[in-house]
Structure formats: structure tokens, C-alpha cells
Amino acid sequence: MNADVPIALLASVAISFAMLTAPQTSLAQSPPTTRADQLFKEGRDAMGRSDYPAACSKFAESNALVPRVGTLVNLAGCQEKQGKLVAALSTYEQAIGLAEATKDERRQKAVEQRDALRTRIPKLTIDASDLPPAARVFLDGELVERDKSRDALYVDPAISHTIEVMCHGRERTTTSVVLKEGEAKAVSVSVGEAVSKPGPSGALD
User: Fold this and answer.
1) Mean per-residue pLDDT, 38-64
2) For the whole model, what pTM was predicted?
3) Which residue from 38, 119, 49 is spatially nearest to 81, judged by alpha carbons?
């Protein structure tokens, strides 16, 4: 009988360990969801106070922990309130993609909100047809591919956007443009004057 005692004790310990580890695994999985729910609630509260920067931050943090269609739609709406319409459009696209992947019935609503937003976003076309092949065009610091420069580019309304043209041997040119909601505008750009080269004596030609 004494020989059976260690075996019984080992079995008891094994069962106790299994019982303890099961809840720990569950608890380890629950905090992200719980934290995501809390952040979402804080985001909704911030929206109610019209504190859109805080609300957008909370929604983004919540979605980073647990991606959800509702969280993305709320984030997009928050971005709209801030005038960040291009970012909101991208967020609606993410919501639609997630809704399609998860068969979420809110997909159609997200599509309608995205389509309504599209009509409000200004469209800027950069006419670079007169530029030499070596010239590069930048919009707000981002390189614009030459084959896409004739396409209408979405930009946020009511803020200044900067178009820069850079070309070796030429002065940089800068153009600023502000568009209203729903406005479409085409802007022609060109290279700057030739850069003067120093002569043999160091004087400019």
C-alpha cells in the first residue's frame, strides 16, 4: 500500500497542475479583448466630448489589439470629424475588407459611408506633361509616380498642399494649393531656371 502513495500523489499533483494552468491560459487570452473593449468605450466617450484626437487614438489602439468592423467604422467617422478625409477613406476600406472576410452584415453600411465620403474628398490632378523625363514630382513630400501624375489624387480639404518639382541642373519649384470639399483642380508644373555654374575664377557665369 505504501508503494502506491507516491503514484497517487503524483497523479494528484498532475491533476491540480492541469486545473491551475487551464484558467491561466484563458486569462492570458482575455486581457487584449478586455483592453480593446475599454479603449473602444473611452473612444466613444471622447467622441461624445468632441475630443476627436483622443477618440481617434483610442479607436486605433483598440483596433490594433482586436481588429473589429465597428471599431474601424468609428475610427473612420472620427477621422472625418478631424477633416482627415483621405485617412478616413482608407479606414473605411479596411472595415469593408474585414467585414467581407468575417461575413459581417455591417459591410453594406460601411460601403455606403465610404461612397458618401468619396464625394466630399477633393481631387488634385498634377499636369507634368511639360517636364523632362529626369524631373521628379513630390506632393506633400511624397514622390508622385510620373505615370500616375495625370490621375486625380485624393487630398484633404482646407489645408495647404505643396507640389515640388526637382530636376538636376534646375532650380526647385514649389506650388501651394488649397482645395475645398468636393473640389477638383488641375495644376500645371514646370522645372525651375537653370542653375548657374561657377566660372574658372569662382565667379558665377
Assistant:
1) 98
2) 0.79
3) 49
